[in-house]
Specification:
381 residues; alpha/beta; 7-stranded mixed β-sheet; 14 strands; 21% strand; disordered C terminus
Length: 381
């Protein structure tokens, strides 16, 4: 049998355009994908989110005579950058810029210049917060404030967006690295503590009217505190979470003015004092909350609710952009319930409030709380 020799792919280099524009000379860091003979250059030095990047080549002032390291070597010939591979063959160069290439598929839908100036503050970086943050990073959001005191464990992996190599890290750190792999220029601030313990100076430095606050805390008190900050700064606020086994989920949002806020919403729900330390959202068919156990559900159900919430979050970030066409804002009310399944075997008796799977509500209105019954300031500080 005659064996055909597999033709080796032309060596291809993805190169940040600014390196050639600036006539950079020095070492290149990144990744070599041997199967495709591809050299992915991410920069000129190690950086956050790319701790495992190694030296994969150099750019020299003159054409080299040898290549002892067997990496790619670049040089300038009449102002043009040329690369040679380990065999001395000319490489194919694919220049990229973050705005034009990373977010190119958003063109005509989202304005990258505007989105890169927006920010998102996350109260909780678990299964909900991790997916929400990555979706906003892909949409072009440029600033992230990640707040969570928890460490990623193996039991989190079936629902979280991070993986085995991240186990043992703070969830904020693991998520930061994933965000930077989507947008290496993003500003990511971490606070490994509960939101109530974050110094107010952190919020002063990060928050502005182009920032959305997304509450996914394990208890409503964390979301109440975050809503207070959002209202003081003038930011939109969103809270989202899952019901028992994620058979359904909830999305609440409010603008800083002109509509009931999260404290009005909590008043409308009734007393939550027994739920402060419950490591879950407060929805269960069990009457005794102190004895209630919570099963968080599978990733595909959690993600379905979260994706809908992020569509709404992008609408909120673009609410003052006259060139943007909203997806959900104006259709969904402040409080939306989303059903994954109405099967009582999964959701218990509560599941029967929904008529069919994938149902969502469009008519629930949130009232203002009477001033004398609204959540007291001392309860959220």
């Amino acid at each position: 049998m005659i064996k055909l020799k597999k033709k080796k792919r032309t060596t291809t280099i993805s190169l940040p355009a600014e390196l050639e524009d600036d006539k950079y000379i020095g070492k290149l860091y990144g990744y070599i994908i041997e199967d495709t003979n591809y050299f992915n250059v991410i920069g000129t030095a190690p950086r956050d989110g790319f701790a495992d990047a190694t030296i994969i080549g150099d750019i020299l002032a003159e054409k080299p005579t040898t290549n002892p390291d067997k990496n790619i070597i670049g040089y300038y010939d009449k102002e043009k950058l040329i690369f040679l591979d380990s065999e001395g063959k000319t490489c194919k160069i694919e220049n990229y810029t973050l705005k034009l290439d990373v977010f190119s598929r958003n063109t005509g839908i989202l304005e990258s210049d505007m989105m890169l100036k927006t920010g998102a503050m996350f109260i909780g970086c678990g299964s909900v917060g991790s997916l929400a943050a990555l979706e906003l990073a892909k949409a072009g959001v440029g600033r992230f404030l990640l707040i969570d005191n928890d460490i990623l464990g193996y039991h989190n992996l079936c629902r979280h967006q991070c993986g085995v190599k991240d186990v043992g890290k703070y969830k904020t750190q693991a998520l930061k690295e994933r965000i930077l792999q989507i947008n290496p220029t993003a500003k990511v601030v971490m606070q490994n503590m509960q939101v109530q313990d974050v110094p107010l100076s952190v919020f002063d430095d990060f928050c502005d009217k182009n920032t959305i606050v997304i509450g996914g805390a394990d208890n409503r008190e964390g979301d109440l505190y975050a809503n207070k900050i959002a209202k003081e700064v003038g930011m939109p606020f969103m809270s989202l979470g899952m019901w028992e086994r994620a058979f359904a989920g909830e999305i609440f949002y409010c603008l800083p003015e002109g509509m009931p806020d999260y404290s009005d919403f909590v008043w409308a729900l009734g007393d939550t004092s027994g739920r402060v330390n419950q490591n879950r959202k407060f929805y269960t068919a069990e009457e005794d909350l102190a004895k209630a156990t919570f099963e968080p559900g599978i990733s595909v159900d959690i993600d379905f609710v979260t994706i809908i919430a992020m569509k709404l979050a992008i609408d909120l970030l673009n609410r003052n952009n006259p060139n943007y066409t909203p997806r959900l804002l104006g259709h969904l009310t402040q409080y939306t319930l989303i059903c994954n399944t109405n099967n009582p075997k999964i959701g218990g008796e509560m599941a029967e409030i929904f008529s069919y799977p994938l149902q969502h509500t469009t008519s629930i209105e949130v009232p203002y709380a009477p001033k004398d019954e609204k959540v007291k300031k001392k309860d959220i500080e």
